[in-house]
Design brief:
about 500 residues, alpha/beta, FAD/NAD(P)-binding domain, seven-stranded mixed sheet
């Protein structure tokens, strides 16, 4: 019997897959990464329009120096980061509502300016709870439970019970309920709407508290030149340590032999064998496309079918000759609201009423303008919550035919969003040099995430990384422990690598 082609095949070159491959390669393992796209990154990537850089998804992390320490441990050069002065900003339904999620003094000042009637005791309590959450997060163990001994699991469980009581409490308490309790009554209706930092009824209080805690610590770091720099650095780490990455090659099947991994089949019908496979991809793609559904245990299949997933986004990347600083924008991400009705603001597919995010990366980082970009050009990136199946799959039908009907429909949707932005930047539509539109179908096409989901499972369940019913098969990324966003996904890749190393021994 011939030896396998590789010790490990990693499916997907997002940050989790790259992290996993780099750590395995550093340990001398023969690793291959297959990526269906033309470059690494998944949602942590960048693209250019008129020589301006846009980040479609993730664009800052919580610990830039920590990421560079990781690169150093992987024998790779660090990248440049810019520490953001303001993590987030909210512009509410009336012009006086302007809240900065930045250092404590500026946050308090902006709250009191927007809401002169806010009581000091209520404001102090909000800040104190956020401080407590930050302290608990700093004390939490970072190791995956799957890597611990029985004693280690018990110890971690006790630590969680003793030191993470507030994290657990506010992770299950709906944000709307939390705000109703802290700022009750009609006098605070505007304030509650302004602090509802993301669309949706199911968002929990922990989201606001984490934003506030890290904002007050000024702990937000933007990679200079765009999010692609993070993914490129991890891809470089894979290659520097002897691993391989092949782009524009899609894995269409995971081959098994009995209950053990055998290898993978690509879209060009070529086959590669491996002792282990790590799926750094969407969970539904893994279980229902790359594996045969009939081998999935019934209990797991039921869990997959019943667990809701996070919706996707509609986005518009705008190159304009208007300078956003002339309209009181400073480079911070901005959430714009035009209603105090939290439910209405959170509904997807409703650009005329729902809340949406505007990003202005060219304002806080000159390197988002490449050599040759016109000085008067600026980038504005608008994101609005949307679902994959909206209006017969955006007029593309179930076959996802992105023809003329699809193009016209998404353009009309974009114009509605731009009209909303014109409430803050008048005549924006007449000053657009170039525009690029992405629907959930676009995000699905580039990431293969189920329905283009941007955050994986919506309820943040901690899915295990070791696939119990198949020897040699592992998962990492935002669909598994420890959850979505850049740094947890990178940690997930590292955990998967350690699990694989134990298996290969």
């Amino acid at each position: 019997m011939s030896s396998p082609d590789f010790d490990t095949i990693v499916i997907g070159a997002g940050v989790s897959g790259l992290s996993c491959a780099a750590h395995l390669a550093k340990e001398g393992k023969k690793v291959m990464v297959f990526e269906q796209g033309k470059k690494p990154g998944g949602y942590c990537c960048s693209y250019t329009r008129k020589k301006l850089v846009f980040d479609p998804g993730a664009h800052w992390i919580l610990d830039g120096p920590g990421f560079n320490s990781l690169l150093e441990s992987l024998n790779t050069e660090p990248i440049d980061f810019i520490r953001l002065n303001s993590v987030y900003r909210i512009l509410g339904p009336t012009k006086y509502v302007d809240i900065h999620f930045s250092e404590k003094e500026l946050f308090i000042k902006s709250m009191r300016k927007s809401f002169p009637h806010v009581k000091d005791a209520n404001l102090t309590k909000l800040i104190d709870i956020a401080d407590t959450i930050k302290k608990e997060m700093d004390e939490m163990p970072t190791d995956s439970l799957e890597l611990l001994s029985l004693f280690g699991k018990v110890k971690t469980g006790v630590t969680m019970l003793l030191k993470a009581r507030n994290m657990m409490k506010y992770s299950s308490l709906k944000l709307q309920v939390f705000l109703d309790e802290l700022f009750p009554g009609d006098d605070y209706k505007d304030l509650r709407a302004a602090l509802h930092i993301a669309p949706g009824e199911d968002i929990t209080a922990i989201a606001l508290l984490v934003f506030l805690a890290f904002g007050m610590e000024k702990s937000a770091w933007s990679p200079k030149g765009g999010a692609q720099k993070i993914s490129d650095a991890l891809a470089k780490a894979v290659k520097k340590n002897g691993g391989k990455i092949v782009y524009s090659k899609k894995v269409v099947k995971i081959e098994i032999e009995g209950k053990r991994i055998k290898g993978v089949v690509l879209d060009d019908k070529s086959k590669f064998t491996a002792k282990s496979v790590v799926a750094a991809i969407d969970a539904k793609q893994l279980y229902y496309q790359l594996l045969s559904p009939e081998i999935i245990p019934k209990k797991l299949k039921r869990k997959i079918d019943e667990t809701p997933f996070a919706d996707s986004w509609f986005s518009v990347s705008i190159v304009t000759d208007l300078n956003p600083t002339n309209y009181d924008f400073d480079g911070s991400d901005v959430l714009l609201l035009n209603t105090n009705d939290i439910v209405e603001a959170g509904k997807p597919n409703n650009p005329e009423k729902n809340s949406f995010v505007a990003k202005f990366n060219t304002l806080h980082d000159d390197s988002f303008k490449l050599i040759g970009a016109k000085a008067e050009h600026h980038g504005i990136h608008l994101l609005s919550p949307a679902t994959f199946d909206y209006s017969n799959y955006w007029k593309a039908g179930k076959k996802l035919n992105r023809g003329e009907k699809y193009i016209k429909f998404k353009e009309k949707f974009a114009q509605k969003l731009i009209k909303r932005m014109e409430e803050r930047i008048p005549n924006l539509s007449k000053h657009i040099v170039q525009m690029d539109i992405s629907t959930p179908l676009t995000y699905h096409r580039y990431t293969l995430n189920h329905y283009g989901s941007g955050l994986g499972w919506s309820d943040m369940l901690l899915w295990k990384q070791k696939i119990r019913f198949m020897k040699g098969l592992y998962a990492c990324g935002m669909w598994s422990f420890p959850g979505p966003m850049v740094e947890p996904s990178i940690e997930s890749g590292k955990n998967a690598a350690e699990l694989v190393l134990k298996y290969l021994k």
